Input
Amino acid sequence: MCLLLGVGSSGSSVTTDEAMRYLLYLVDVNDLYNVALGTYDFDLVLMVAEKSQKVRVLFAVFSFS
Output
């Protein structure tokens, strides 16, 4: 999952956005989000949240903090 952030930098024709959309097609969005949270890489968490429409839930959680 952490390799996803480096997809576009290796000179490949696949962008990070395309890779994330494909991964969301293969894996349950809630499982992917939980794995991203487990990495403590919050850039990755935000990327998954934005692509999976979980961004509304994420902002609601942080707005109460």
